[in-house]
Amino acid sequence: MSTSGAAPQSYREVVLDNAQTVSSVESSVRSLTYILPGRFANAEVVSEALYASIGLIGHYHDSILAREARRQLPHTPVSRFNRYTIALHRSSRLASTVSIALTVVQTFEVFCEMLAAKFGGKKIRSRTILTIETIKVVCRLLLLRLSGNRMLLHSQMPDREYDVTKMKPASAVPGTSWRGKRTGREHIPVISLAGSDESARAMQFLQARALTELSASPLQLVSRLTGLREIGEILFILRPLLYVLAIKKYGSRSYKPWVLSLLVELFSFGTAFNPHTRALKSSLTDLERDEVKRRAFLFLYYLLRNPFFGDYTKERLVAFSTSLSTKPVISFFSGVIQDYIPLWENYHFYTASGNRR
User: What is the CA radius of gyration of the chain?
Assistant: First the structure.
């Protein structure tokens, strides 16, 4: 085996044999990034570099540990979101590649903006933002097509569902899985469920993998879009790019980009509702309902976007954080709010999308 091939395999073995330690280190570094801004010169750049790096490394660790978790803990329930996301990745290599590319871009977008602003000035920063938003739109439109015109969910990568505290070092657990020759997929044999409570564990295993909605395939957990809902989804994808182009034309102090973005998002959001009952359409699946609720939360970001932030929100946030500063324990949160205000005010990607921390 060549050195280049041995290094990743050695790293995989270290991760598999030290799952709890790896997870603990990730959590500690991620927590550190929340308190770094404002602590020293360029602290926000260091914080964002750490946050983006640990996020990307976390996804890589998940790709290693998830398979081992399925082998050791086959009875662990699998969420609808993960069933759908994994099925989408398996539907085509291009869908998997685009999903990974979009995740990487979203993970490093703020860091790239910070570097552009620091070393290139306003002009380079503006071009960087436009380039990143264009790449994201292209990736999302591709995913819309590759998924069969299905609603894009909040993330393109499976969630971490396994409990690392219940995992043993991989070297201490005998191999029990087998790989199908035709599909190449890994399977857990029923014999791996053997134990003092075989029937209960077998039932857990079957329930964990049973579809709770009437669908022939995990991809059917998100329905195909047609009519106004399809138009609304396309507009939702285009909205961040339209927002940037409007800022480029009218300036960041104009309310025109802010209002345009809000109206486009409201129209997109409204296509998920029945115009007569003003309730969510009955045809929406559970995953789609969860995504609509998440998108409703995204409207709060308009309070943090200029010029509304500078004219209204900032003053009230400063007053609120000042009132907290005199109270024991929670005064810590006052400092965090004050440290983040310049980031919300000066960096586009901190408030432009719902993929922030």
Answer: 23
CA distance 16 to 66: 10
* 186-187 and 178-179 strand pairing: antiparallel
Give domain status of residue 184, yes or no: no
Q: Which of 108, 107, 89, 95 has the alpha carbon at shortest distance from 139?
A: 95
* Domains held by the chain: number: 1
262 inside domain: yes
- Per-residue pLDDT of the chain in tens (357 residues, 90 and over written 9): 444 445 577 888 888 888 888 888 888 888 888 777 767 778 888 889 999 999 999 988 888 888 888 777 777 788 999 999 999 999 999 999 999 999 999 999 999 999 999 999 999 999 999 999 999 999 999 999 999 999 999 999 998 888 787 777 766 665 555 455 555 555 555 545 455 455 555 555 555 555 444 445 899 999 999 999 999 999 999 999 999 999 999 999 999 999 999 999 999 999 999 888 888 999 999 999 999 999 999 999 999 999 999 999 999 999 988 888 777 777 777 877 888 888 889 999 999 865 555
Contact 80, 212 (CB under 8 A): yes
- Estimate the share of the chain in helix, then strand, then coil, as percent rounded to the nearest 5: 70, 0, 30
Question: Which of 331, 310, 313, 306 lies closest to 321, judged by CA?
Answer: 331
| Residue 355, in any domain of the structure | no
